[in-house]
Amino acid sequence: VSTQSTGSVLFHLQNPYNLPDLNTHRMNGLNALASTLPATKPVAEYLISQFYATGVSLQQRLDVLDVLIHAAKELSSIKINKVEDSPSDKSIVVVSPPRIGKIVKQQKIRKPAPIPQKNNFAAYVGDFFYPLAKSYDSSN
Length: 140
Description:
By secondary structure, the chain is mainly alpha-helical. The protein contains 5 helices and 2 strands; from the N terminus they run ααααββα.
């Protein structure tokens, strides 16, 4: 069974009986197909062709984008940390006892510089981004 036909079945799979977690399993299957080599290119090509196809629902288009984003993260092999809600530059204000209420010294705590990592997705960007952007401004 080809990966493209498996991707087609997963992409068009519906849940008429409201089975629990079917959509989660469907998306996990699409994510695994799109981020596993050497199946990446045909699955990405198929999903992008379905993104611009007529008769595809908005939810299915969003699913395509989610799968492509997940596959890009997996293929890049870069660990992405969640952003904290607190501001990035925290300040420490030191007040000396005789001058209560006046700021004597203000220091900013800086985070260490990020460690550069090799992005392995560069070899696959042509299979993901360019075909998706190619039809962006077409009249269809």
